[in-house]
Amino acid sequence: xxxxxxxxxxxxxxxxxxxxxxxxxxxxxxxxxxxxxxxxxxxxxxxxxxxxxxxxxxxxxxxxxxxxxxxxxxxxxxxxxxxxxxxxxxxxxxxxxxxxxxxxxxxxxxxxxxxxxxxxxxxxxxxxxxxxxxxxxxxxxxxxxxxxxxxxxxxxxxxxxxxxxxxxxxxxxxxxxxxxxxxxxxxxxxxxxxxxxxxxxxxxxxxxxxxxxxxxxxxxxxxxxxxxxxxxxxxxxxxxxxxxxxxxxxxxxxxxxxxxxxxxx
Length: 265
Prior knowledge:
- By secondary structure, this protein is an alpha+beta fold.
- 63% of the residues lie in helices and 15% in strands.
- Strand 2 and strand 3 (197-204) form a beta hairpin.
């Protein structure tokens, strides 16, 4: 009888300690889960603030550029017309004067089209995401820069408009950064499906820019548009990677989830 009681007491104590361990484990798991949820919420709030700040910064830059670029150009045109208007009752221009004014108006019109494209790239609706990226990329070609475009995707891929704008602006920002800061002689754009994701890669032979440098610039939110670029890709659930190929080339790769309605790939 004594042995049975001892076994019962031992079992009770053992069960008690097991219960404590289980409660402690559950509490720890619950605490980690709550902490993870809190971190995710803080990260989302931080990204939302960063997006708003990036948008406001873009608007401020656009406002300053509109003032600095269009104001002087319009002033020059007005100055060219003003003396003629004051001296004559009718407007009489020499051929040279007309050519100068026409050239200024043409430049101003081109600038307005460029700014309009920055505010809302209309080719997105007309051409779709991939063709718009191709068009922008080919426009980079110059005497100093050779560009090569390749795409393994023939079908038009339809993302929600806001997603297409986010990806388009991020890739365009990367193109401009490469041209302005890396000064390449050659650049290639490759679009393909990779691991059931849309892959858009930009490879160039200009100066290197590492993944760590990119993330540091994005964290600081200063210069080169890295923060804006990263935020736009995060919005669509994508990632940006930067790799060095043969220690000579730099490849910036955008991996974007395929559209939910896309079943062809």
